[in-house]
Amino acid sequence: MSDHKTMTINLVVWRQKNANDTGKFENYTVKGITEHHSFLEMLDVLNEDLIKAGKQPVAFDHDCREGICGMCSQVINGMPHGGQERTTVCQLHMRKFHDGDTIYIEPWRARAFPIVKDLVVDREALDKIIQAGGYTSCHTGGVPDGNAILIPKPAADEAMDAAECIGCGACVAGCPNGAAMLFTGAKVSQFAVLPQGKAEAKTRVTNMVQAMKDCGFGNCTNHYECMAACPKGINVKFIARMNREYLKAQF
Amino acid sequence: MEFLNTSIGRKIVMAVTGLSMVLFAVVHLIGNSTIFVGPSGINAYAEHLHSMPLPIIMLFRAIMLALFVVHIVYAIQLTIENRGGRPTDYAVKATRKATFASENMIWTGLLLLAFVVYHLLHFTFRATPGLTLVNDAAGHFNVFAMVASSFSSIAGAGIYAVAMVVLFLHLYHGIQSLFQTFGLANGNTLPTITKAGALVALVLFVGFLAIPMSILFGIIKG
């Protein structure tokens, strides 16, 4: 590496052995961090130090490290994914921080997301919402012709915008009420605007909204913190669309 | 009914009852603005309202009471649920979109409840001390004299001024919120709806505030 400037970062990290442990913050100092380290690589450096010292490394979720899998889940200085617009934790880089900074790292906090260990939470509740209706039923068989069902370009674009959701749960983590309205709104909307989704539109929205409640998510109070937290820039217009779909399903 | 047990269903009830009360506030302000005509204006308006058939008056009051009770009961229930949605707060609070108004809806709402109780005791049941309760030359109850006697003191006008600040905060978040809840907003319209909602809240604030202030500073006289 050509540059010699390195940073020393002070970390305040949430440590919790398991779901039943009360958990507490621990202070750490990481040295030798360059501006090219991603946030997760910085935590890798910390964990190397902890392992060498014979201590338990900090458990955190990660997978693709290229911003598309939705695994990384950390609240950094009070903001899910660290607060950089349209950026997951893995794509957040240490050049956004300064030498000597103190950084708080906390897990997603919501009743529906119990903590598994340290920064790892159980996001199965989002899967339950999908299982309740986030699909279209179709008969298997021959592959249908590509243009057998015509879809207007604006509708296709709208569905794609909703389908950008990677299901990371940052919207829930950012919501003061721990609500999953942006996630569910995006999943309802991506089908609602397409012809393939119309057949099951009523049962889908009804069942997914019921699943949100059953999973222990809070209610929406239109703070729009979810939209600020979303690493994919999902718009709260999809919550409005879900509300509309839900009203339509009553008649 | 399942609709009333789900998150969105109950929010829609909040929005319907909230919208009804906003519309009432608009009509209330238009009616009250007759005071700027002078004693004859507000007294004639009050006489017009009170001369309606009693069943209609009582029905209207019952509907307003029902709207109020439903809105408050659901608000308390939803707030308790929402506090439970995130049992542990973050060590660092860094909200970006939430506003003072959006985070304190339950408190501004409960303050408005207290104000409405006071307001009804004050001008509807006329149970608060220091009111001038007389009839005008035509033999009708002199509403203007009663209002003027209340707002001629700083304390009397001050309570209403504070209450209108609270109303502004409540509606600043509430009006745009109900459009979102009804699903009438989209990405293009929400910023405009938010500004328009704030404007309506501001108009109601300025309009209602103008009455006690005009009397306190002697702009309208009997």
UniProtKB/TrEMBL annotation, chain A:
Keywords attached to this entry: Iron, Iron-sulfur, Metal-binding
InterPro entries (UniProt xref): 2Fe-2S_ferredoxin-like_sf, 2Fe2S_fd_BS, 4Fe4S_Fe-S-bd, 4Fe4S_Fe_S_CS, Beta-grasp_dom_sf, Helical_ferredxn, SDH/FRD_Iron-Sulfur, Succ_DH/fum_Rdtase_N
Name under which the protein is recorded: Succinate dehydrogenase subunit B
Species per Swiss-Prot/TrEMBL record: Trichlorobacter thiogenes
GO biological processes: aerobic respiration; respiratory electron transport chain
Domain annotation 4Fe-4S ferredoxin-type: ranges: 156-185
Similarity comment: family membership: Belongs to the succinate dehydrogenase/fumarate reductase iron-sulfur protein family.
GO MF, any single term: electron transfer activity
Cofactors required: [2Fe-2S] cluster; [3Fe-4S] cluster
Automatic annotation (TrEMBL), chain B:
Cell location: Membrane
TM region positions: 12-36, 56-76, 105-123, 143-172, 193-220
Pfam families, sorted: Sdh_cyt
Alphabetic keyword roster: Heme, Iron, Membrane, Metal-binding, Transmembrane, Transmembrane helix
Top-level taxon of the source organism: Bacteria
MF term (GO), any: metal ion binding
Keyword presence, Lyase: no
UniProt entry tagged with the keyword Calcium: no
One Gene Ontology term, aspect cellular component: membrane
Name this polypeptide is given: Succinate dehydrogenase subunit C
